[in-house]
């Protein structure tokens, strides 16, 4: 008796601890075709292999490689492979409430032009997916989401008079740095920082990056790595050090430590004679 043919369709889905993202959905489909359906969220889609064709608001659209598709809430759509070997996609479902990254005034513009050819936007969305996969990097994910939302608004708002972007503010950057310095171990949620400082999350990220040449999440991780170095030199094991300086776990410490210092923390401790 012949064995059962394995199902080539694969999916991964989860809800991250990042405000504004209700679900992350990664899938490889060769057989599945979506019937007409509707979401109460924004659907932000990128295709990594193959292509998708879909109908939205009774008009046909497609997602060749490199395209970003933004499907608005409440508008019916379907979807199927436009290539013989199917497609591999990454999707973010974004909160469509007043607290979400996009406001409902953009629904009409997105329905009219859901497919965007924008290499910068595509790159930022890829970076956001990478951050969302890694536990402990929620501040980075939130910062990247803020910049993605800002870019989407810039692309969709020309019909509404063009985007309104506030110039980077050094005072806001200095205050955010003080907040990060005070919360190195506990960390800070980007939305919380925005509320405390009275600034939009994207404005915070741009202002800090312009002032210091480093993104807020990179600054915070570098501060934690500095603390980790001192504890490792004092003979503390890496597992304890990770928790004490604010990393999610030892692998989280190792990833950022190696990026900053160039070697893993265990090798660093051995080089000091403490490992």
Lay out the secondary structure.
Layout: E1 10-14, E2 21-29, E3 34-37, E4 42-50, E5 52-56, E6 59-62, E7 67-71, E8 77-81, E9 87-94, H1 107-112, E10 115-117, H2 119-133, H3 138-156, H4 170-182, H5 190-197, H6 201-212, H7 216-233, H8 238-245, H9 250-261, H10 265-271
Antiparallel strand pairs: 1-2, 2-9, 3-8, 4-7, 4-9, 5-6, 5-8, 7-10
Helix pairs in contact: 2-3, 3-6, 4-6, 4-7, 7-8, 7-9, 7-10
Describe this structure in words.
The chain has 275 residues and is an alpha+beta fold. Helices cover 43% and strands 21% of the residues. The protein is built from ten helices and ten strands. It has helices at 107-112, 119-133, 138-156, 170-182, 190-197, 201-212, 216-233, 238-245, 250-261, 265-271; strands at residues 10-14, 21-29, 34-37, 42-50, 52-56, 59-62, 67-71, 77-81, 87-94, 115-117. A hairpin with a 2-residue loop joins strand 5 and strand 6. The mean pLDDT is 92.
Mean pLDDT: 92
Q: Structural class of the secondary elements?
A: alpha+beta
Number of strands: 10
Strand proportion: 15-25%
Poorly predicted runs are none
Span of the ends, CA to CA: 56 Å
Strand order of the largest sheet: 1-2-9-4-7-10
The run of helices and strands is EEEEEEEEEHEHHHHHHHHH
Percent helix range: 40-55%
Number of helices: 10
């Amino acid at each position: 008796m012949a064995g059962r043919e394995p199902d080539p369709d694969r999916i991964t889905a989860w809800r991250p601890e990042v405000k504004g993202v209700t679900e992350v959905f990664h899938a490889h489909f060769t057989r599945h075709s979506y019937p007409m359906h509707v979401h109460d969220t924004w659907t932000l889609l990128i295709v990594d292999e193959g292509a998708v064709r879909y109908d939205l608001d009774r008009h046909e659209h497609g997602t060749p490689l490199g395209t970003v598709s933004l499907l608005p809430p409440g508008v019916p759509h379907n979807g199927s492979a436009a290539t013989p070997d199917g497609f591999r996609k990454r999707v973010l479902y974004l909160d469509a409430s007043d607290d979400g990254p996009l406001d409902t005034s953009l629904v009409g513009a997105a329905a009219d032009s859901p497919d965007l050819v924008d290499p910068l936007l595509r790159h930022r969305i890829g970076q956001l997916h990478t951050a969302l996969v890694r536990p402990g990097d929620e501040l980075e994910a939130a910062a990247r989401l803020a910049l993605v939302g800002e870019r989407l608004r810039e692309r969709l708002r020309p019909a509404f008079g063009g985007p309104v972007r506030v110039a980077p503010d050094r005072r806001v950057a200095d205050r955010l740095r003080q907040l990060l310095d005070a919360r190195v171990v506990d960390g800070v949620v980007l939305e919380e920082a925005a509320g405390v400082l009275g600034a939009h999350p994207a404005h915070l990220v741009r202002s800090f990056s312009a002032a210091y040449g480093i993104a807020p999440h990179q600054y915070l991780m570098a501060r934690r790595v500095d603390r980790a170095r001192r504890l490792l030199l004092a003979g503390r094991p890496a597992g304890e050090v990770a928790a004490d300086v604010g990393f999610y776990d030892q692998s989280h410490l190792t990833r950022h430590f190696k990026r900053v210092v160039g070697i893993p923390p265990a090798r660093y401790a051995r080089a000091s004679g403490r490992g």
